[in-house]
Amino acid sequence: MKTKGKIIILKRIVDSSFAVSKSSLLQLLENEDIYISTRTLERYLKELSDSFFIEYSNEQKGYIKNSFIDKEELSLFIHLLSVKIITSSILKNNYRKLIYHSSHQIFKGLEHFQI
Known about the structure:
The protein is mainly alpha-helical. 51% of the residues lie in helices and 7% in strands. It has a single domain, classed as Winged helix-like DNA-binding domain superfamily/Winged helix DNA-binding domain (Arc Repressor Mutant, subunit A). The chain has helices at 2-15, 22-31, 38-50, 71-92; strands spanning 54-57, 62-65. The protein has a two-stranded antiparallel ribbon. Helix 1 (2-15) runs antiparallel to helix 4. The longest helix is centred in the last third of the chain and has 22 residues, at 71-92.
């Protein structure tokens, strides 16, 4: 759930016109049935700050998007996190039996998947 939580936090801060507080982020996560401690939230925020996506504003007393944010890099980061969520969901729910693995590069279409 930590990846999904990071996506929710990142989207909220980047899409917001105002600074976002830790308490409002915790409430947002709880609304999504993600329960984390304040310390875990702080680790998530540090990771996102270290990636130059968000920063803490002393003036506004909350988290805002970084003024140097690269929209393309942010989009790729969110996409990567989304893929990670899907992959972990597949592996956790034991769908591995349904996935056909092949090392052949000649297969290119769905017609080559076994039913």
